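Re: the 634-residue chain
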Amino acid sequence: MKLRALRYLVPILVMALFGAIVPACQPVGAVKGYMAIIPKVLHSGSTEALSVALFQGERLVPGDVVVSLSRDGEEVVSVRKNINGKGTIELDVPDVPEGQYQIEVRGTGFAGEAPVTVEKSFLVFVETDKPIYKPGQTIHIRVLTLDAELKPLSEAVTVEVLDAKGTKVFRRELNTDEYGMASLDLPLSPEPNEGAWKITAVTERARTQLDVRVEKYVLPKYEVKVELPREWFLVDEPITGRVAAEYSFGKAVKGELEIKASRYVGEWQEYATFSKTIDGTTDFELPPVGYVAGVPAAGGMGNVMLEVVVREKATGYEEKTTELLTISQAPVNIQIIPEGSAFKPGLPFSILIVTESPDNKPLDAEVSATITYIDSDYQEREREERRLTTTRGKALLKTTPPAKSVAMVIELSGEGAEASKIVEASYSPSSNFIHVEQISEGVPRVGQEVRFKVYSTRRATNFYYEVVARNKVVFSDFTRSSVIALDTTPLMAPSARLLVYQILPNSEVAADYLPFKVEAQYPHNANVEFSKEEAAPGEALSINVKTEGKAKVGIAAVDRSVFILAENRLNLQQVFDELERLYMRPQAELHEVSIYPRITTKGARDVFEEAGVVVLSNHTIPEGKEYEARGKVD
């Protein structure tokens, strides 16, 4: 009997196992829903990735997907791939002109298309050995070409130079080498058009411009510096400091000091002057400014401009400098930084409180906070009163906005300073939301793990997520857990966005995104050593350069007095500034808004837009909703 029972049991187990596997392997025709996440900006001549998820109900199912890019009805590129539920499709975008294109995603039983922008992603820099030249001198020019990952590219470059009258005086076509570098010289005539000259470097994918001056200049004999106890002063306190004047060879300057102070009151208005003899250094004191016009971008603070002149006693020769000071009403500046551009009713929301001195140095302070929640009828739904103490200038205010609130008004005060901000709510027809926050501390380095927590008003089968950086989908996955952990990669530096979405049983999509920073690591270091700390004119000096591996190094040596006039050395910060200009444009900003005459909430479609992507789907992706003071309107 036992053997007979076992004989029947085995087929039952096999059938049960087979039955459990079959639903996860539905045929292509079983796809009922899809989500395609596409960067809003694609890059000409590069490989792009877009994320696709295929559904049957709440389950992921496999299917073939075709992605095509076209312009004016002409197909540019197309690719087909089988997606096993969720995955990425790589699209090799040809080297096509910049502009608007159409991208289409289709499969058995679904299709969608949307406009995207194609841009050329490329970095080109030009630098010169000096910022200013005399007639008859030679301008030494260096061009540097890099790709979006800061790797050198050999590229054809056209360099043109316009003189001060706009006349083209130079043109050279050249190719950068395997290190992305090229050098050329431009000898100046004895009688050039003096003024600002423009040097332009143009490739098929990018262009840049640098201005240099050509004039019969005299190098400054000495440098004038202003030393201040701090970079800000209160509106009712005297402005004090010290002026130092030193020849380029280190000797103190003797002469007369003159200072003219002007305050900004809608226009620059002189309000005080100061004069005194100087022997290398001297102290000064100016009367309180009294009043200035506050600038909203500076948190209501204003400015005073100091024009400082040191006149050499023996010759009457003079050198000048200017100093811009911040003028504040209070010794503390309070900033309110919500963790997102919109809150989700019923889910946790964090607000970073920052207390700083007017020159942006952290200060500890006692702060009173009031949060008022407004509903769609413009009625106060709830009010919270909190007291916080900032540590190293920061405190985190956590709250859970009540259901059916459509806006929150945050008001802070402390140490004589005040700040306020309005944050509007997200919108969902079914009142279901998700919210993402970073739970790992600090800024991870490339290769380190970063962790996030996903909160949801409704239990989810899966959370689907993408990491978007430099206008690219650089990572894609899904999880059943409310905690997302991932290892950071070089493409995520210096900043990226985590986009998370959920498919609800009613086919509605709930979404949230969170920007996060990644500290880049650059393993190739260069060190420079001189054979002597100090050398006399005409004396030989050796320079020892060490690099980690094969590298090409550019060196420029210029008299220090030239850079007292101006400075144009190319540095790594300029490279990152250009990289940020190309890829890190802010997608969403918080503005100082009012809840009158209307409150504008944000839907899931706005979340995708702000995260920098286009979404195609046959699921319901809600848009935001507006509420007017007299009642609500669509």
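Residues 352 and 396 are 5 Å apart (CA to CA).
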